[in-house]
Design goal:
With 210 residues, the protein is an alpha+beta fold. It has one domain. It is built from two helices and six strands. Strands 1, 2, 3, 4, 5 and 6 form a six-stranded mixed β-sheet that branches. A hairpin with a 2-residue loop joins strand 2 and strand 3. The N and C termini lie far apart (128 Å).
């Protein structure tokens, strides 16, 4: 009589458990990568929005400073109202030609040293402009501008494109090269020392009066 055949169950090796754990780890890593990408995009969007606000503030300060220069030239030099022109307006009985005294400077202009004339000085000739946004629209502070009076220069250029055939350099009798008063304007979105965690935009423009 044969002995009964007995079978024994195979020992489980846990392969399915390992595969499931690996898949779970992969899904977790993918989820973390997606979350990180979403947070990064959100920060980039916030930074772009903040820079857009800063650019608007700096541009508004630049326009205000240009208007200050324009008003100073008109007031001090009796200049033409349309455009910017130093010297007395011929239509108002004035004489032609310009000099430093006729061009004048805005009260906020930097003229040398470390101080500016006029009131409203904030720091090293930076002046507060009108805050067009305000705190209700997430403004980082009042925009500021800095005006430098660069003095008089002639309008001659190396290519001669700005010269007249009647000018003295061509032997004409029309007088010398036209003189121009030059102002350099810097504008920034806000004082960075007061709010350093916000985007700062700095713009520059040259204003010429002749």
């Amino acid at each position: 009589m044969k002995a009964p055949y007995m079978t024994f169950p195979r020992r489980q090796r846990g392969a399915s458990l390992i595969i499931v754990l690996i898949l779970l780890l992969v899904m977790t890593l993918l989820g973390l990568a997606v979350l990180r990408g979403t947070l990064l995009e959100e920060r980039m969007s916030a930074n772009m929005y903040d820079r857009s606000l800063a650019f608007q503030q700096a541009e508004s300060a630049l326009r205000e400073a240009e208007e200050e220069v324009r008003k100073a030239v008109v007031a001090n030099g009796n200049g033409w109202v349309i455009g910017i022109k130093c010297g007395n307006d011929p239509t108002r009985g004035g004489i032609t030609g310009i000099d430093d005294s006729k061009c004048g400077m805005p009260t906020t202009a930097y003229t040398g040293g470390t101080t500016c004339t006029g009131g409203g000085l904030t720091s090293d000739c930076w002046f507060n402009a009108v805050d067009q946004l305000g705190s209700a629209n997430k403004s980082a502070g009042a925009p500021q501008y800095y005006v430098q009076y660069m003095g008089l220069r002639d309008s001659h250029d190396e290519l001669g494109l700005g010269s007249s055939a009647a000018s003295t350099q061509y032997g004409g009798g029309g007088g010398a090269v036209i003189q121009e008063a030059m102002y350099r304007i810097f504008a920034r979105s806000h004082n960075p020392s007061a709010n350093s965690d916000r985007a700062v935009v700095v713009l520059q423009a040259n204003v010429v009066a002749k």
